[in-house]
Amino acid sequence: MKRTARPSSTRLAALGVASLASAYAYAGPERIAYPAGYQTTFVNYNQIERPDRKPAQVRFMYATRAAAAAAKASEPVPYGAILIMEDREAKLDADGKPLRDAEGRFIASDKVLNVFVQQKGQGWGEAYPPEKRNGDWEYAWFNADGTRRENAKFDGCFSCHTSRAGRDFTFTFVKWVIDGKP
Amino acid sequence: MDVRPRTTRLMAVAAAVVGVTTALPAAAAEYTVSLKGTTFQPPTVNAKVGDTLKFINDDSVDHEMFVPTKGFGVDLGMQKPPTVSELKLAKQGSFEVECVIHPHMVLKVNVSQ
């Protein structure tokens, strides 16, 4: 067997660089699979109106049943949790204004525009530099048919969710848990 | 011609006036909330159904009003200075308004009938 002539320290350094590169290459939305069937198998724990969108939208927030059941206000969200933010068009009247239900809330249509997924995996955050890392959360963006959104960028997900580090990088899920899972 | 005694007629008129008064809805109020210095001012609003919150971005930076409370959830979108955004209070209950960008900003809103 032919032996390499490189010194041991050089080989170790190369190995280290290769290992780091491998970790960074693996990190990203490809870690997350499209959560087929989430509309019926997940918990729809909140809905957020977006009157600023043209046309207006309603965001349906989902969580895996296991995460919804296990989450506690005093603890980080359990590993394996999958959170979904699904954008739907709101139903509109003849003037293009959102239709509202008896409580004054937007009525959503069945037209899904985006499926954003936030998933937590053990050690996933280690691939990111500290200034970007969102704990052990990763993000992915899918179309309504489950295909991945082409040319999707995720820096915005990381930077925006960093503002909610105190709620384990979630805007609504941990808030819902803190509020007693109403 | 009304032949009822004068006191009876007066009572009927008074009752009608009271009836009209109670039938009229109270005028909807507007509550102005300042965002200056990345701080909600006032920090709490006690309002009624039908009232409106007006968020005045009199600050030097962008803000984004966001309600994460279940049943009241809404995101009013990015708001640059010196613009105004509005939130109509359509249902009774209590909720918090946060700024997406500045997590320390929290406004408590109580809405009664």
Question: What does this protein look like?
Answer:
The complex is a heterodimer of chains A (182) and B (113). Chain A is an alpha+beta fold and 182 residues long. Chain A contains 5 helices and 5 strands, in the order ααββαβββαα. The longest helix of chain A has 19 residues, at 8-26. The model of chain A is unreliable at 1-5 and 15-23 (pLDDT under 50). Mean pLDDT of chain B is 86; it is low at 1-5 and 10-21. Chain B has a 5-stranded mixed beta sheet with strand order 2-8-7-4-5, with no helix packed on it. Chain B has one helix at residues 6-23, and strands spanning 30-34, 44-48, 52-56, 63-67, 74-79, 84-88, 93-99, 106-112. Chain B is an alpha/beta fold and 113 residues long. Chain A binds chain B through residues 45-53, 59, 61, 100, 103-105, 160, 163-164, 166, 171-172, 175-176, 179, 182, and chain B through 66-71, 73-78, 88, 90-91, 100-103.
Q: Give the low-confidence spans of chain B.
A: 1-5, 10-21
CATH superfamily of chain A: Cytochrome P460
CATH topology of chain B: Immunoglobulin-like
Rg over C-alpha atoms of chain B, rounded to the nearest angstrom = 21 Å
Based on CA inertia axes, which overall geometry of chain A fits? globular
List the helices and strands and how they pair.
The complex is a heterodimer of chains A (182) and B (113).
Chain A: H1 8-26, H2 38-41, E1 42-50, E2 57-64, H3 65-70, E3 82-90, E4 108-120, E5 137-142, H4 155-162, H5 173-178
Chain B: H1 6-23, E1 30-34, E2 44-48, E3 52-56, E4 63-67, E5 74-79, E6 84-88, E7 93-99, E8 106-112
Parallel strand pairs in B: 1-3, 2-8
Antiparallel strand pairs in B: 3-6, 4-5, 4-7, 7-8
Describe, in short, the structure shown.
Chain A has 182 residues and is an alpha+beta fold.
Keywords, separated by commas or semicolons:
heterodimer, A: 182 residues, alpha+beta, Chalcone isomerase, globular, disordered N terminus, B: 113 residues, alpha/beta, three-stranded mixed beta sheet, 1 helix
